[in-house]
Amino acid sequence: MSETGNAGGHEPPADLVVDLLRAAARAPSLMNTQPWRFVVRGDRIELRADAGRALPVADPTGRELTLSCGAALLNLRVAAARAGRACAVRLLPHPAEPDLLAVARLTGVPGRDGDLAELYEAIWLRRTNRYPFRDDPVPGPVRDELRAAAAAEGAQLDWLTGYDAWNAVRVAREAELDAEYDPARRAELDRWTGVNPARGEGIPAEAVGPRVDGRAVPLRDFAPDLVDRPAAQFEHVIQLALLSTEEDSRADWLRAGQAMERVLLTATARGLAASFLSHPLERADLRSALRDPPAARSTRRCCCGSATQPWRPRRPPGAGSPERASRPPARGMPPGVPEGRTALSSGAFGPTGRPDSDPIFGGMTVSPAHPGPVGGPASGDVALADPRRGLDPVEARRRLERYGRNEPPRPPRRPWWHRVLTQLRDPLILVLLGAITLTTLTRDVQDTIVILAVIVLNTTVGVVQEIRADRALAALSELTAPTARVVRGGAQQQVPAAQIVPGDVVVVEAGDIVPADGWLVEGAALQVDESALTGESVPVDKTAGTGPAAAMSAGTTVTRGRGVFVVTATGPDSALGRIAAALAQPGDPRTPLQRRLAGLGRVLAGTAFVLCAVVFSLGLLQGEPVVRMLVTATSLAVAAVPESLPAVATLALALGARRMAARNAIVRRLPAVETLGSVTVLATDKTGTLTEGRMVAELVWTPQESLTASGTGYEPAGELRDARGDRAEISPAMAELLRAAVLCNDAHLQAPAEPGGAWSALGDPTEAALLALAAKAGLDPERVRAGYPRVGEIPFDGQRRRMTTVHALPDGGFLACGKGAPDVILRDPTLVCPDEVRTRALDMAEELAAGGHRVLAVAAARHPHPGHDAEQGLRFLGLVALVDPPRPAALPAIGSLRDAGITPILITGDHPATARAIAERVGLAAPGDPVVTGAELAAGLPDGRLDQVRVFARTSPEQKLQIIDRLRARGHVVAMTGDGVNDGPALRRADIGVAMGHRGTEVAKQAADLILVDDDLGTVTAAVEEGRRVYANIRRFLRFGLSGGLAEILVMLAGPFAGLAIPLLPAQILWINLLTHGLPGVALGAEPAEPDVMRRAPRSPTEGVLGAGLWQQVVRLGILIAAISLGYGVWAQLTGRPARTVVFLSLGLLQLGVALGLRTRAASGRPRSALESPFLLVAASAAIALQVAAVYLPPLQDLLGTQPLSLADLARTVPATLAGYVAIRWELRRARARRRVDRHPAEVPPSRA
Q1: Does residue 417 fall inside a structural domain?
Q2: Are residues 1058 and 1159 in the same domain?
Q3: Distance between CA atoms of 780 and 771, rounded to whole angstroms?
């Protein structure tokens, strides 16, 4: 209406005007700009557009500004009616004075606006909702009332259903995406969002709604760049109501604004919250897409929901009226009205236009909690893609250029020199680089070459490891379907999966890999295996719509049926892309050993610098040449650092990896070998790790009997056994049940292609398990099907949860067979089943489900003709209980891990009851132990309780990462096993990632450090033993190398005080280092494990590499070796023999004696026979021979500066070797006496171990 009430009136009281303006200012406006000015002139209240608050980018025509002003005008009329005054309104938008929109005069008793008074309180309660809703219906009478509210202001409100609603949402998506990628629009948004509430305008952070990656109904995101936003989900259910007017003038915009506000206030007064969508108005092409009147093709229920409405600031009344000062707060605000409230909402209101007019948007929205297909920018670009025609090929190319190829993100390539520099930052390598610099300056070619070789070897190994780890991201492309069927230009065509774009219409059927994320718009008996993403071992039913059942995710596999979906996210924005992003998350890639060796390197570097400075100073004080002392100091620096430690560690790890490979464990990253030895927690997945990874029918129940089935996998081998464990005779009732299970079945069993291979399934795993069950009972599934040809079916449906087939009988009749959820079949009122049997069956089904089984009810009936209602009058036959059974090796493997002091925990995406049942069956958890779900984790789980939990269920990939991170933060060394794509980030984040070789996806294998070739968890125990062996051998070498280096330093420091000016020449120091740290040191890395290595507790993650008394042993041995060597030297000098040669010879022999004494002990506690360590024996013997040769061979005499000794003098140094051997054996005996072996008895319940 253009005018209401009379034109006359008197100047209203000032307080009343303030109250009216306060109410008017509560109107909604785009970005809360409040683009109105109220000018009071006597009895006139002028409504003017505030050009300074216009949005030239988002609203260039001023359409939405005018709508907002119309909403403010409606509020003013409502407030006037509440005050008992009529409000005569004249709409005046005119080109001559474009900012003057309307004039209102207050008169006496309200006339036609009297019914507006009841909407007054709704003004203060209404909020533009940006939060999720509950799934409650909006009653039909309320819908009618909302339509009447729009009609009272000269507009029309239409509820959209079916394709019209879906198309309107797609248009809103396109508008949202356009705004997100337009820099000018983003800048305009930034001006009005995240503002200080003190300004009284704009949209603060708490009002813009939560941030998400993708949504089905795009409520406008006013703050794409704003931080500190809530993390809940936006709305998802497609449900729109559209507001329109007959014409498209500015006066019509004002009418539409009043109609929109009247609808919103009416909804609020009826307990509904509201949100209006305005962004499709901002593009002419999108407005035109909404001009056709809504078509009543289908009916969709309108859902409702709840949301707490945030407060939005408002300017005081005076800020909008330049000719009157602002007044105190209005007295008319209802008392006790909260700033936020909980309300209900319908579906999203939006506009459509009549022909020849543009649509007017306003309205409300609703969604369930399921986030649906995810995606960042790409998820919004599905507009204008008619599922019947698909995208135009030209548009598809444009989107491909805009969003890029549908491929997982790949890490930026690091140049080779960057990788090399990363490896050279290791402290031990830095010390060696310093040493090589000095040897080069002093022209010591031999030492330079030796040290350089060590550096090159270590750096090369590290670079290769980095390259192999980066392949984890590249492996994601293995899951992407090479081609896909899309609808483009109205025709189906095959395109490379990498060329799929948001908005494409994709057709999938059984066996296809879903190429991108999307929403299903058409499905026929569609089931999808999502185990690679979720860990769920049972395929998921998919139905068209907007809830969780309609979400399609890239990388999943269609196991049954056919479907058509619209792509919402591709490449990095898909679920698969998010996992790739998680794999790329930076973290500390170093293993515990690497961290410990880095710390040791820093200590040695500092020590070497100090000692070299001392020796250099002492030499200069004694008058030695500067160059000579510089060389000597350099030699000591090399002696102080066991430069062969990187090579020995690498060799020990490589040998460990080789031994693991012989035990079916392939190591992808060498340092992971040692880390296995320090694992304190093993986090394992369920499906395919603790279990077989395939469904098996374990029990079949009829009202007369209950039989169990033997055998594994899909192999028909096995038998049905009775309660006594004997082979059962198949009764007619049991045969009838099995026959029905075969007929009501779309799966097929496939024999192995090669002898010794495993049987496989084509189709649904549950149905394949039923076929294997029947085969074990002596039925041939293919012959049964041939004898009862199928003539009709009612496919399985996720909502009905049952499937029925009809088959021709040889005698001309027809047989209907059905299977489904027990509560559906048994509660069918037409089912032929005695009440007592029905009750027993329901109780049995509940008991089996509580034990982690998937239970199916089977029924059948004979019908006279195929047109008979197939599901009416079926006769109950029995139940079948299926389970993904535990692996036979899982129970002993869990026990062995616990004996080794390792705590096993289960982290799965499966149902809590299933997780608990499997955990109890493999001994991982005790009955009654708590099971923590992903929801509980999200709500917050104290760290103290985290240590007590052994089973986590219904967890997402992100929550797996959270669990691992929290355990690592508490000092645990965590190993994680898994086989699916969803396990990839957790495998990468854990200290040790363990993937399954057979069942594991390529993503899991590439993200893992260790691959179990036989998928046997027991192999992890063997790998842990090898890891502990490697760590023990590295400590052996450190004990040997550091004690020898310390002895050399002490000899050089104490020599001058014992009368030996320079006990050793630089060349002699380097020779001893090369000789002792070379072959003998490497041989120590190949020693076998101690007999009790798997009965010891894992070493503390905080224990240094020199912990557990090792450094004390090094000090004692170093002092002993140095003292004996100096003693020989002093004796030689006093007796006129070549003292330096004697010191050189005895020092080398003493260290080699220590090496021989470091052999692994036997089970009896004594050292193993030398013949049991042939590598060490040969290495030590060769080193002894070379050490003696250095004294007698002329070339070596010239090189090392030695002098020959008499045979008698040589004989006197032989006891030095024996002295080193005795000393180290004595030290080791003392260490074992102090060691406390911490055993973990298997009988302790796992949750309390």
Answers
A1: no
A2: yes
A3: 9
Residue 544 placed within a domain: yes
Contact assessment for residue 528 and residue 540, using Cβ atoms and an 8 Å cutoff: yes
Angstrom distance (rounded) from CA 865 to CA 910: 43
CA separation, residue 925 to residues 268, 1011, 1146, 1147, 1243 (Å)? 52, 25, 59, 57, 12
One domain for residues 46 and 77: yes
Residues 158, 139: Cα–Cα separation, whole Å? 15
What are the residues whose beta carbons fall under 8 Å from the beta carbon of 519, sequence distance 6 or more? 216, 372, 373, 546, 550, 551, 552, 565, 566, 568
Among residues 433, 401, 405, 361, the alpha carbon closest in space to that of 571 is found at: 405
Express each pLDDT in 162-192 by its tens digit. 556 666 666 676 666 666 556 777 777 767 7
Domain shared by 178 and 310, yes or no: yes
Separation CA 913–CA 847 (nearest Å): 11
Q: Which of 952, 986, 1015 is the last residue of a domain?
A: 1015
Number of folded domains that form the chain: 5
What's 159-175 look like in SS3? ECCHHHHHHHHHHHHHH
Tell me how far apart the alpha carbons of residues 1082 and 1097 are, in angstroms, rounded to a whole number.
Answer: 27
d(CA 764, CA 781): 15
For residues 864 and 891, membership in a common domain is answered with no
| Strands (E) located in 100-171 | 100-106, 156-159
User: Looking at residue 1093, which CATH number applies to its domain?
Assistant: 1.20.1110.10
**Those residues with Cβ within 8 angstroms of residue 443's Cβ, 6 or more apart along the chain or in another chain:** none
pLDDT at site 1238: 39
Asked whether residue 568 is domain-assigned, the answer is yes
Query: Which domain range does residue 964 map to?
Result: 665-690+887-1015
Amino acid at 16: L
Q: Which residue type occupies 1218?
A: L
Whose tokens are 């005046």? That residue is: 92
- Amino acid (one-letter) located at 559: T
Beta pairing class for 790-794 and 802-808:
antiparallel
Q: What is the CATH number of the domain that holds 141?
A: 3.40.109.10
Q: Which residues of the chain have pLDDT under 50?
A: 1-9, 133, 135, 196-198, 205-238, 292-312, 319-385, 465, 469, 472-481, 586-588, 1162-1164, 1236-1249
What is the Cα–Cα distance from 818 to 764, expressed in whole angstroms?
16
Query: Could you tell me if 905 and 1032 lie in one domain?
Result: no
- Note whether 1044 and 1173 are same-domain residues: yes
673 in Cβ contact with 657 (< 8 Å): yes
Whether residue 1088 is found in the same domain as residue 1006: no
Do both 879 and 893 map to the same domain?
no
Number of continuous H segments (helices) and E segments (strands) in the chain? 38, 35
Instruction: Return all residues near 841 (Cβ < 8 A) that are at least 6 apart.
Output: 701, 703, 822, 826, 833, 857, 876, 878, 879
The yes-or-no answer on residue 136 being catalytic is no
Residue 672: which CATH number?
3.40.50.1000
CATH number of the domain at 782, please. 3.40.1110.10
Rounded Cα distance between 663 and 1018, Å, is 10
End-to-end CA distance of the chain: 79
Residue 76 phi, psi (nearest 5) = -60, -40
pLDDT of residue 455: 73
Active-site hit among 19, 113, 221, 685: 685
Which is nearest to 913 in space by CA: 951, 968, 969?
Answer: 951
Residue 420 placed within a domain: no
883, 915, 943 — which closes off a domain?
883
- CB neighbourhood size of 324 (10 A): 17
Whole-prediction pTM: 0.53
Q: Which three-class secondary structure string do you get for 874-941?
A: CEEEEEEEEECCECCCHHHHHHHHHHCCCEEEEECCCCHHHHHHHHHHCCCCCCCCCEEEHHHHHHCC
Helices assigned H by DSSP within 1103-1249: 1110-1134, 1139-1157, 1174-1192, 1194-1200, 1207-1234
Helices of type H across 480-547: 531-534
DSSP label at residue 256: H
Distance, CA of 318 to CA of 301 (rounded, Å): 45
